[in-house]
Design a protein that fits this description.
- By secondary structure, the protein is of the alpha+beta class.
- It folds into four domains: 51 residues, no CATH class; 44 residues; 110 residues, Uridine Diphospho-n-acetylenolpyruvylglucosamine Reductase, domain 3 (2-Layer Sandwich); 108 residues, CO dehydrogenase flavoprotein, C-terminal domain (Enolase-like, domain 1).
- It has twelve helices and 14 strands.
- The strands form four sheets. Strands 6-7-10-8-9 form a five-stranded antiparallel beta sheet. It has a four-stranded antiparallel beta sheet with strand order 11-12-13-14.
- A hairpin with a 2-residue loop joins strand 12 and strand 13.
- Helix 10 packs antiparallel against helix 11.
- The protein is globular and about 60 Å long.
């Protein structure tokens, strides 16, 4: 009864909009709006399409009906299942991103939750995270406490709700192509590497993965681990998710990792997610800040430089000018936070 009432109210409100604007123009297409509820769903679909069209794993692939669900017992078996078919196969772990699809772009799915990819471990001076480890595992892992990685914990806890974090996996959040994923920015500043298993084993930096993302998918390879070095003790990290509500998808994800000598930046890494076509490091900004003092005038210059050549999204969730202004505000806040905690006066 309550659901029907909500649908009726939404339909009525959207219907009033349609009376004033019977057609909705999107790019070069003019779309007829026939029902209020369809209007609301259309706005959502167009927004997500705009954000994901350059990231979609299966861009240009025709949708098909799912015909099989397979459960391998090893990584090698999982990869072989996808490569050998028959038909187009895909990997699934938490399924929180695939669950958003109206139709799956695969003939069959291969469940990788039982092949031993759910562990977090410290190896030497680095952390290795199994691709099927849940985001809640990441948020509560003792490995991340008191190691300069509190900002990674904060990023993990910012992802949706506890119920979603119990299902969603670290690997899925990084490589599924979901346009408003929260973890890519923080893993970019950690200089993370992806371990892949396909026809052979290989390592790929997360930055290179996103830089080449528009050209295709992983071609049947399975991401098995995400690894990164533990940040130096003199470095400080900061993460902020800017959203309308605590559990809403992000308008902006911003991560920063910096090391200071006195009040001067030795090095800085800054990355953005959710507000650009693909998660990106701000390399020009990082070069500009190297050796510069952590002063308000410098930070203001850096903030303006950060948005100079960015392909910032402009959609129903937030206009481009609004996002640009907020990026500058959040960046100054992040850099100042790192500076205050990262160096003393000399």
């Amino acid at each position: 009864m309550g659901t029907q009432k909500i649908i009726k109210e939404v339909d009525q409100a959207a219907g009033e909009f349609i009376e004033k604007c019977p057609k909705f123009r999107h790019g070069r297409k003019e779309i007829d709006l026939h029902s209020g509820l369809a209007c609301i769903m259309l706005f959502f679909d167009l927004e997500m399409l705009e954000m994901s069209k350059n990231l979609c794993v299966v861009k240009g692939v025709a949708m098909s009906a799912l015909r099989d669900f397979k459960r391998p017992s090893s990584v090698a078996e999982a990869v072989a299942m996808v490569r050998e078919g028959p038909g187009r196969g895909g990997f699934i772990a938490g399924g929180t991103t695939l669950g958003l699809a109206r139709m799956l772009p695969y003939d069959f799915l291969v469940d990788i939750t039982g092949v031993g990819l759910n562990k977090l471990r410290k190896v030497g001076d680095g952390i290795r995270i199994g691709a099927a480890a849940t985001i809640q595992q990441l948020a509560t892992s003792p490995l991340l406490h008191n190691s300069g990685l509190e900002f990674l914990i904060q990023a993990a806890l910012s992802v949706a709700t506890r119920q979603i974090r119990n299902m969603a996996t670290v690997g899925g959040d990084l490589v599924s192509g979901y346009p408003v994923a929260d973890l890519p920015a923080v893993f970019l500043v950690l200089d993370a590497q992806l371990s892949l298993t396909g026809s052979d084993r290989m390592e790929l930096s997360l930055r290179d993965f996103f830089d080449s993302r528009v050209s295709g998918s992983l071609n049947g390879a399975l991401v098995t681990e995400i690894s990164f070095p533990v940040p130096p003790q003199d470095s400080r990290g900061f993460f902020v998710k800017f959203a309308r509500t605590e559990n809403d998808v992000a308008l902006i994800d911003l991560a920063c990792l910096a090391s200071l000598e006195g009040r001067h930046f030795k090095w800085v890494r800054v990355a953005l997610g959710s507000t650009v076509l693909r998660p990106s490091r701000l390399l020009a900004l990082e070069d500009f800040l190297k050796g510069k003092p952590a002063e308000e005038q410098v930070l203001a210059q850096a903030a303006k430089l950060a948005t100079k050549d960015l392909s910032i999204l402009d959609n129903i969730r937030g206009s481009r000018p609004y996002r640009m202004e907020m990026i500058q505000v959040l960046l100054r806040r992040a850099l100042l936070n790192c500076a205050q905690r990262g160096g003393g006066d000399k």
